[in-house]
Amino acid sequence: SVDAPAGIVIDKHGHLVVGHMGEVGVAGDSLLTIYDESGRLLASPKTGLSDIVGLAYSPKSGKLYAIDFSWADPKAGGLFRIDLSGETKDATVKTEKLCSLDRPAAMALGNDGALYVAEFGTQAEGSTVRPGRLVKIEGDL
Question: What is the pLDDT along the chain (141 residues), one digit of tens a residue?
C-alpha cells in the first residue's frame, strides 16, 4: 500500500530502506519505508520531500542522502541529507537541502568520496542543446 518506490538502499543493520516518489503532481508526499530482513515493515515516516528518486548511504559518514526530482515544483528539487531517528513505527525524519539540482534522476557515491548525480535538466525553449548533465558533488559527505 505504498506509491512508486524509486530509491532503494540497505542500511548498516541490513534493513531495506526505500524512498517513494508519491504522486507526481503532489508536493511533499514522499516517504521512506524500512523493512527488516524478513520483509516486515518497520517504519514508514513522511519526509516532506516530493519525489525521491535516489538514495545513498555514505560509506565514510554513514549519513543517508536523497535526491528529490520534485515534479510539482522542479525548482524545489535537489540533494538532501536525511536524518532518520529510529527504525520502528515511531521513526521520524529531518531533511536538510544541501544543494539545488535540475530534475535529478540518479546518484552514486564514487570511490573518490564524491557524489555523482545525473540530471535530466530543463531544456530552454527553442534550444536544440540537450540539458542533461553529470554533477560531481564533493565535500564532507
Answer: 677 899 999 999 999 999 999 888 889 999 999 999 999 999 999 999 999 999 999 988 899 999 999 999 989 999 999 999 877 888 899 999 999 999 999 999 998 989 999 999 988 899 998 889 999 999 888
Cβ–Cβ under 8 Å, residues 128 and 99: no
26 φ/ψ angles, rounded to the nearest 5 degrees:
-110, 120
Distances (CA, A) of 102 to 11, 21, 130: 27, 16, 13
Residue type, 27: A
13 contacts 64 by C-beta, under 8 angstroms:
no
pTM equals: 0.92
Cβ-contact 5, 18 below 8 angstroms:
yes
Closest CA to 87 of 12, 28, 29, 21: 12
Q: Which cell goes with 43?
A: 517504519
